[in-house]
Amino acid sequence: RGCGMLRAGGWAALRVGPRGRELGSGGRRRCCSSGPDGLKQTPLHAFHRQQGGRMVNFAGWSMPVQYALSHLESHLHTRRHCSLFDVSHMLQTKVFGRDRVKFMESLVVGDIAELKPDQGTLSLFTNEEGGILDDLIVTSTSEQHLYVVTNAGCRDKDWALMQGRAEELRAAGGDVHLEVSENALLALQGPSAVQVLQTGVSDDLAKVPFMSSAVMDVFGVPGCRVTRCGYTGEDGVEISVPVGRAVELVELLLRDPQVQLAGLAARDSLRLEAGLCLYGNDIDETTTPVEAALVWTLGKRRRVTMDFPGAMVIVPQIKGKVKRKRVGLISTGPPIRPHMPILSPEGRPVGEVTSGCPSPCLKKNVAMGYVESEQSRLGTVLAVEVRKKSCPALVTRMPFVPTHYHTLK
């Protein structure tokens, strides 16, 4: 997911989306703290400052871009051990009512009805033109509601979309009700993340596979929803924690020397190495799931029923042709940044970079972007124009760095 992350290419290139607005189930503005600069603050804001977090404006929120560790050190620590990220600026919504699945399937491309209790899926909000409005995770909880997490930069439009559709369904006699969760949200990511967390929970986390969740006590903090997911490519969890206990839980997790705080800069380079899209850079309302190489998010049943927004555009593209496709690129030399032109070997423009940065793990430049379909095959030699110079680049399989998601054997 985009997850309200940093725009690829360094913290100074922050992509600031629409200012978020938090609303309760009745459409009221949700209470949240704001600083003197007008930026909204997560429940961990004061803690970030105490820990030396370098705070920046991201999507109307004051968020840490890094701490004492450098971006490179923080990135590599996550790959080798584990890091803790504050993602409380993301929108957490609960969907109640007997028509909750019908409601969600009227907005997204995924098969929500097939989800087992406490199983989740990455999905996409789409419009009637086939464009992607946002990416999100939908979990069908055993508590008889859907738990939906959407991006910080899309809060206003996502809430308006969901609230508007809910009102339509209720007007037609449907039963659906939305509630914004007040919880904080923490992401513990890295190869030792689950080992660290297991010391503080009684549930056997080995039985919780990727994209599944469970409600449990975490280090004595009750009522936490722990979801085996994240946006780094590593094993890890996202923990939805009651807001009044968030700082306490963070302090307990940080007692383990394997855990370090990490900010937006590391979060962005980690997701790019994992080949994951950032909403607003790599996917948006002008890109379809097929162009974005996200066909796997389309439920098989939904492809047949074609009852999701934009299906008449998207489904024919699966077996047909699209003019452009998202690809991965690797290069050496100067770093590749967003909006740089992608060229054919002859120097003809064939596309544009959407995300790019030096890979701390590979010691090469990694990037993704859109190119003409004819130029999208793996192994195709292209070039990227960097400061008016042509730098060779190779179309490469993603993820650039192997992922380590936990699946049940």
UniProtKB/TrEMBL annotation:
GO terms for biological process: glycine catabolic process. It comes from Chelydra serpentina (Snapping turtle). It comes from the Eukaryota. Gene3D superfamilies: Aminomethyltransferase beta-barrel domains, Aminomethyltransferase fragment, Probable tRNA modification gtpase trme, domain 1. SUPFAM superfamilies: Aminomethyltransferase beta-barrel domain, Folate-binding domain. The glycine cleavage system catalyzes the degradation of glycine. NCBIfam families: gcvT, PRK00389.1. Its EC number is 2.1.2.10. Its main location: mitochondrion. Belongs to the GcvT family. Residues 324-401 form the Aminomethyltransferase C-terminal domain. Pfam families: GCV_T, GCV_T_C. One of its GO terms (molecular function) is aminomethyltransferase activity. It is found in: Mitochondrion. InterPro entries: GcvT, GcvT/YgfZ/DmdA, GcvT/YgfZ_C, GcvT_C, GCVT_N, TrmE/GcvT-like. Residues 44-299 form the GCVT N-terminal domain. This is Aminomethyltransferase. The glycine cleavage system is composed of four proteins: P, T, L and H. Keywords: Aminotransferase, Mitochondrion, Transferase, Transit peptide. It catalyses: N(6)-[(R)-S(8)-aminomethyldihydrolipoyl]-L-lysyl-[protein] + (6S)-5,6,7,8-tetrahydrofolate = N(6)-[(R)-dihydrolipoyl]-L-lysyl-[protein] + (6R)-5,10-methylene-5,6,7,8-tetrahydrofolate + NH4(+). PANTHER family: AMINOMETHYLTRANSFERASE (PTHR43757), AMINOMETHYLTRANSFERASE, MITOCHONDRIAL (PTHR43757:SF16).
